[in-house]
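ok, trying the design again with the full structure, not the truncated one.
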């Protein structure tokens, strides 16, 4: 560094003495010249050769000396800015150094292993130049180390990503920059208020929630040309939606909303991009090539990108774009490989009869070990509590069981043993008040011996149980509902205490509705027979449900307060059903089956068709989700109780909106009619002006009317039977 400083000073001194140097050179080379001046001949212009003995004439040159009193106000930074940036200073290298504290204290025998582990962890942040481990007189480490990186950016990345890094269950590393010690030691004793900073307008990610009439947004995805996907964003205003934005080539395949509607994710060959705000500006991009689908954590802090089967799965921080953890797929289906707790605190996966739960503060295993459960088949998080429900398959002389486990203490809250189990499905209610485990059971088993060693087991018939866990009651009691017929579908009411089941033969199935109450067994409240339906779609607000047959495209809208069928409808070849977040509208869509039938229908919650949209190459319709309400349950009950007070206010507002919309529609139609009339009049004038030319081309025969050339008219009589009466004569 000292050598670099000396070299810099020498070059600066040489630059300032350069005019004197040129003058001295001129005097040595041209002793007859009292003052050095630059030649007027252009450097690239060749000089004429002079004959030997002929004197050379030097023309008078302009004077380039500075005038008297001239002040040189050009700084060294302006002349040699790039060069001076490389000038060493006292603080060089300090910003590249970090201090790692809470390292295990080890002796000389274990030091090489510790050194290898520490350097393996910290080399991911950048190139390491030097590592120093202070030691005591007995050659033991002192519990901290200094690591120098090649540049300041690597040191900052190490502090950001590795501070609070959990080395094991006893040691958590604390990482700070070396320069921070001086900064914190220079804190003044007397506090002074910070200077106010000018306001900087930022992109508001939640402005869609400020809509005065609580009108939801939706996006429509369509393929305009092969390989070009268009996304149209609209506001669900009445009577016609309002287009907010249209993006061509917005994504390569499809889009996906985040759980609370803050972000939208697009897919590209290089990776995925997250957008947000009123104009959907880019929030962050994540370089995971050929990512097929994504999963966003419930609180929208993390994004999981899934590559093709057998490839990498990556967890990212949405705001910073940092890669938090990566896994390698086992080659099976990647769908829902990682499952999140409701508060984003934990993420879990199932690997080789083990539940691996990772704490998202460090993304290391909870308590540094997995939960081993022999024979485990599946698990699921509660949507409102840090509780895991999992089930274990039946083995010889060992029954199957369903277990509820509290996290992070890993205590078993409830266990239910099950016999003759073929399969189980776990269904949590959205409010987390109930858990239903659908159990497929063998009704009878029979053993037939082939020889003394082997035997075959034949199972005759199946029946089904629904084990209902009351999560909010003491000791979590379990009730059972038995159904003998084949189960086609099951669905919880999102807000409420009812659940519905489709059972029986697909051609003539029955739909049963059960209600669960605190301290009581589930009660059958309604059974609808001879229904041709295959799917159940509850309103997000409860009470209303759509019984859908997606093979035939038929829909029944049911009010579960009195179980009346409000309306029936059909949408040929419809393959998807989407409720809006408020539960006021339903959309059915058709895509990919027949080009002439592609598009979507919008229905009211009562089953009335509001809009039919035929869209060529229609791909996807998605409502923008909303975050949970901030109102308490008591406040919501109060609003529902006093809803009649606000009814007249909302009714007049809707009427005014429809009147305004009708007026705008009438004005729009009048304008279109005027444009058409003007266009028609223009074409009629052109047609009349061309009449003379037409007659010249047609041998002066006027053919503009049918009566103009009666010789070319053929008359044909067609008889049509209008009615046939039969009279019986006695």
């Amino acid at each position: 560094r000292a050598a670099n400083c000396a070299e810099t000073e020498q070059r600066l001194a040489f630059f300032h003495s350069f005019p004197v140097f040129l003058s001295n050179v001129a005097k040595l080379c041209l002793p007859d010249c009292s003052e050095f001046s630059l030649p007027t001949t252009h450097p690239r212009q060749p000089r004429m050769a002079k004959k030997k003995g002929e004197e050379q004439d030097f023309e008078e040159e302009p004077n380039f000396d500075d005038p008297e009193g001239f002040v040189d106000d050009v700084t060294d930074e302006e002349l040699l800015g790039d060069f001076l940036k490389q000038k060493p200073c006292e603080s060089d290298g300090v910003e590249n150094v970090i201090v790692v504290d809470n390292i295990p204290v080890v002796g000389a025998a274990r030091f090489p292993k510790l050194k290898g582990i520490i350097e393996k962890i910290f080399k991911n942040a950048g190139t390491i130049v030097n590592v120093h481990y202070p030691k005591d007189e007995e050659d033991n480490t002192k519990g901290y180390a200094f690591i120098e990186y090649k540049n300041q950016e690597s040191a900052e990345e190490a502090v950001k990503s590795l501070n609070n890094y959990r080395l094991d269950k006893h040691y958590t590393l604390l990482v700070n920059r070396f320069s921070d010690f001086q900064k914190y030691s220079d804190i003044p004793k007397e506090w002074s208020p910070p200077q106010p900073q000018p306001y900087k307008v930022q992109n508001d990610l939640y402005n869609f929630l400020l809509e005065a009439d609580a009108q939801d947004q939706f996006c429509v995805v369509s393929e305009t040309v092969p390989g070009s996907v268009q996304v149209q964003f609209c506001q669900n205003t009445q009577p016609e939606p309002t287009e907010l934005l249209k993006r061509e080539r917005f994504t390569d395949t499809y889009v996906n909303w985040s759980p609370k509607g803050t972000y939208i994710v697009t897919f590209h060959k290089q990776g995925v991009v997250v957008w947000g705000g009123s104009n959907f500006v880019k929030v962050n991009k994540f370089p995971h090539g050929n990512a097929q689908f994504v999963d966003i954590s419930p609180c929208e802090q993390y994004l999981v990108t899934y590559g093709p089967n057998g490839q990498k799965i990556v967890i990212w921080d949405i705001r910073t774009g940092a890669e938090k953890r990566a896994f390698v797929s086992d080659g099976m289906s990647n769908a829902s490989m990682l499952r999140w707790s409701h508060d984003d605190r934990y993420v879990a996966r199932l690997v080789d009869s083990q539940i691996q739960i990772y704490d998202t503060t460090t993304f290391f295993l909870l308590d540094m070990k997995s939960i081993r459960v022999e024979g485990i088949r599946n698990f699921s998080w509660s949507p409102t509590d840090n509780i895991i429900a999992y089930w274990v398959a039946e083995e010889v002389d060992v029954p199957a069981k369903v277990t509820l486990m509290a996290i992070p203490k890993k205590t078993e809250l409830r266990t239910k043993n099950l016999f003759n189990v073929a399969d189980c499905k776990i269904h949590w209610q959205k409010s987390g008040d109930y858990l239903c485990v659908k159990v497929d059971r063998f009704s009878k088993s029979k053993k037939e011996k082939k020889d003394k060693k082997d035997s075959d087991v034949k199972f005759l018939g199946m029946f089904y149980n629904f084990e209902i866990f009351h999560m909010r009651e003491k000791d979590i009691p379990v009730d059972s509902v038995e159904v003998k017929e084949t189960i086609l579908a099951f669905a919880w009411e999102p807000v409420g205490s009812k659940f519905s089941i489709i059972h029986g033969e697909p051609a003539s199935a029955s739909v049963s509705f059960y209600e669960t109450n605190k301290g009581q067994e589930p009660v059958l409240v309604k059974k609808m027979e001879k229904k041709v339906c295959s799917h159940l779609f509850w309103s997000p607000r409860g009470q209303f449900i759509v019984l859908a047959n997606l093979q035939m495209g038929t829909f029944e809208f049911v009010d579960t307060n009195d179980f009346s069928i409000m309306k029936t409808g059909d949408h040929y070849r419809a393959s998807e059903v989407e409720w809006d977040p408020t539960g006021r509208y339903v959309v059915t869509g058709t895509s990919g089956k027949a080009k002439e039938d592609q598009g979507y229908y919008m229905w009211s919650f009562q089953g009335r068709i509001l809009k039919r949209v035929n869209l060529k190459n229609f791909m996807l319709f998605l409502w923008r989700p909303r975050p949970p309400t901030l109102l308490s349950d008591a406040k919501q009950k109060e609003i529902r109780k006093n809803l009649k007070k606000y009814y007249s206010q909302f009714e007049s507002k809707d009427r005014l909106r429809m009147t305004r919309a009708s007026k705008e529609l009438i004005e729009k139609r009048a304008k279109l009619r005027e444009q058409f009339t003007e266009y028609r009049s223009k074409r009629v004038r052109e047609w009349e002006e061309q009449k003379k030319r037409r007659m010249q081309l047609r041998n002066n025969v006027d053919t503009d009317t049918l009566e103009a050339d009666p010789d070319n008219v053929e008359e044909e009589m067609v008889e049509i039977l209008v009615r046939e009466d039969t009279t019986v004569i006695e």
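Keeping the full-length input from now on. Residues 643-689 form the longest helix (47 residues).
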